[in-house]
Write a structure and sequence with these properties.
By secondary structure, the chain is mostly helical. Helices cover about 60% and strands about 10% of the residues. It has a three-stranded mixed β-sheet, with no helix packed on it.
Length: about 180
């Protein structure tokens, strides 16, 4: 059987569309013995595909700025997986109680003043770590999506994101001293 004669029309790629998408071909039969026309049209993603692509590209460009949120989702997922093992709650609960107790003991009882000062300087980080461990223990025991625990996770993640953004902005505005000058206090 002989191959029918066809006319091929290719619509060129338009600006603004991403390369790598496969074009689609449409065969148009004009009837009455004329040769069919093959119309090759570049692929245009749907509105949902374009929105998803733009969102993904925006998140990828700002991935470092959103690090606490990604870490929060990672902790939520890990605790959700560990909630199948209720004994893991004790692995988080014991350090959550002992960590502040050890800090308080060192702050009040250590004979060297330098150790007490350094310990006081770490109060915020020890408190945040202890709160995170306590939340993890409760989330493993009761489930991470329990009402108050989910609200506490959201508040902790939002607070970490706000502090992270503030710290990054503060670091970006500090002038860099040239290497040949000496800063004297």
């Amino acid at each position: 059987m002989a191959r029918p004669r066809t006319t091929k029309i290719v619509i060129p790629q338009q600006r603004g569309l991403r390369r790598g998408h496969r074009p689609t071909a449409h065969v148009v039969d004009l009837g009455r013995g004329t040769a069919p026309v093959v119309l090759v049209v570049p692929h245009r993603p749907s509105l949902a595909g374009r929105v998803a692509g733009a969102t993904g590209r925006a998140l990828w460009r700002r991935r470092v700025a959103w690090a606490p949120v990604w870490a929060g989702f990672g902790v939520l997922g890990a605790v959700g997986a560990l909630s199948a093992l209720p004994a893991a709650a004790f692995a988080f609960g014991v350090p959550a109680v002992l960590l502040p107790a050890g800090r308080l003991f060192m702050a009040r009882r250590h004979p060297r003043a330098a150790v007490r000062r350094k310990n006081r300087a770490r109060t915020r980080s020890v408190t945040a770590l202890s709160a995170g461990l306590a939340w993890s223990a409760l989330a493993v025991w009761f489930g991470p999506l329990n009402g108050p625990l989910a609200a506490a996770w959201l508040a902790g993640t939002a607070t970490a994101q706000a502090l992270w953004s503030r710290r990054r902005r503060a670091l970006a505005t500090v002038p860099i001293a040239p290497a040949d000058t000496t800063v004297v206090d």
